[in-house]
Design brief:
The chain has 425 residues and is an alpha/beta fold. Helix content is 43%, strand content 18%. The chain contains 14 helices and 16 strands. The chain has a 7-stranded parallel sheet with strand order 10-9-11-8-7-12-13, with helices on both faces. The protein has a 4-stranded parallel sheet with strand order 5-4-3-6, with helices on both faces. Helix 14 (357-366) links the parallel strand 12 (349-353) and strand 13 (371-374). The protein starts with a helix and ends in a 7-residue tail after the last strand.
């Protein structure tokens, strides 16, 4: 690593640490004022944001990036408006910082409670999605944290513009610009420095592909909130409503292919397979989805005239496609479905379609994923859809935060003691 990169990252870290103290004492009014200012400017500069983003998109295309990557990189009018709405939704959320849980008097006379506090300085390393710059900064801002953002080189122009908008919003509210900093170098060694800066950064949130996450898991010294894969399943139970199953499973796969909450494996109870698979798979094939199927599914579909089916291999059950490809398996019962999810799932999001409450309850209790759903599309596993305003990422870890990480996931608790002159005897 060059000394200049190291010096730059150390300087960013020092300034972020200093800004974090100002953010910890910032009022809700200041933070909300900054967020509303950012939302207003995002809308005002929507055309400029798209124009700058197009430079990134064309560069990525010239570099041979695949369609899923280009989709994540592209900012549309809808994407930009969703960012602004997310900012406004975060404004509407209660500010958790400084809240003290009910004080309880102890035998000694002291009163004991817990206060919600920021984590401090959060480092976010992400690829291709420039909207993360706004979403992550907004959540860190509202939760009283400072944040260092290191986006991918492919989105450098978009991220730089969005960072300027954010810093202008902070300044307008009397908050330090250094509370949100974007690493402007595309040198990969900056990441190596960032993930070891334990004196300045309290937690790292990586948002990117498996290679990025794997590298950070091997090299990082700063604690992480992360998820590696989004191998999401939907199980259609024997007691499912067929029309509902078709509608929900179509959406879970085809509404968008690239997000980590898109369904990658469909599990179908053998008792309902004949009723649901032909209708559903025609929709998939009409939309250009490649179907990779097990033997029982192939038998059902070929009996109904289907062609162009691909035999599922072992690796298909372990693959997050992020593309118009779907693995389908016919199972004997809910136990086989849950066993499959336990073996191949990534503990991200899994769903059951059923009208049987007992089956739904079993699925909710036994499937060990960050989000478990009944009769809903896996595409709902998202901070905005969960009412969090946005998300800083999705965690399939079990400690400290799990699922879409919103405001509470960016805070911690500390004990506070209110005394009246008590001493310990």
């Amino acid at each position: 690593m060059s000394s200049s990169i190291q010096e730059m990252m150390q300087d960013i870290g020092m300034r972020a640490r200093a800004a974090s103290r100002a953010m910890a004492r910032a009022s809700s009014e200041q933070k909300n004022q900054a967020l509303l200012h950012i939302a207003k400017v995002v809308r005002q500069q929507a055309a400029k944001i798209q124009k700058i983003n197009q430079v990134d998109v064309e560069r990525a295309k010239a570099n041979g990036q695949d369609p899923a990557f280009i989709d994540r990189l592209t900012m549309t009018p809808k994407t930009i408006e969703t960012m602004a709405l997310g900012l406004e939704q975060i404004v509407s959320l209660d500010d958790p910082i400084g809240k003290i849980s009910a004080l309880q008097k102890q035998a000694s006379g002291i009163e004991l409670g817990q206060m919600r506090v920021p984590l401090g300085v959060i480092g976010i390393i992400y690829e291709s999605r420039p909207n993360v710059t706004i979403d992550a900064a907004a959540l860190c801002l509202k939760s009283g944290n400072a944040v260092i953002l290191r986006g991918g080189s492919e989105a450098i122009d978009s991220n730089t513009l969005l960072a300027q908008i954010i810093q202008d919003g902070l300044a307008a509210a009397g908050l330090p610009k250094d509370a949100v900093q974007v690493v402007t170098t595309t040198d990969r060694s900056a990441v190596g420095e960032m993930i070891t800066m334990t004196q300045y950064i309290d937690v790292i949130v990586p948002r990117g592909g498996k290679s990025l996450i794997a590298r950070l898991m091997a090299e990082a010294r700063v604690p992480m909130i992360k998820h590696l894969d989004g191998i999401c399943h939907t199980y259609i139970d024997a007691d499912a409503d067929v029309a509902m199953a078709v509608k929900v499973c179509d959406n879970a796969k085809t509404q968008r292919y690239a997000p980590c909450n898109a369904m990658e494996t469909l599990l179908v109870n053998q008792e309902i397979a004949q009723m649901v698979l032909p209708t559903l798979c025609k929709i998939y094939q009409d939309k250009g989805v490649e179907l990779r199927v097990d033997g029982l599914t192939r038998k059902t579909l070929e009996a109904n005239g289907f062609q162009n089916l691909v035999d599922a291999k072992e690796e298909d059950w372990q693959t997050e496609y992020l593309a118009p490809i779907l693995s389908i398996k016919t199972v004997a019962n809910i136990d086989e479905a849950m066993n499959h999810i336990e073996q191949y799932g990534s503990k991200h999001t899994d769903a059951i379609i059923t009208n049987n409450k007992a089956q739904a309850d079993r699925f909710l209790r036994e499937v060990d994923s960050a989000s478990v759903m009944v009769n809903a599309s896996t595409r709902f596993a998202d901070g905005f859809e969960y009412g969090l305003g946005a998300e800083i990422g999705i965690s399939n870890d079990k400690l400290h935060a799990r699922g879409p990480v919103g405001l509470d996931g960016l805070t911690s608790l500390k004990y506070v003691v209110m005394g009246h002159g008590e001493i310990r005897t």
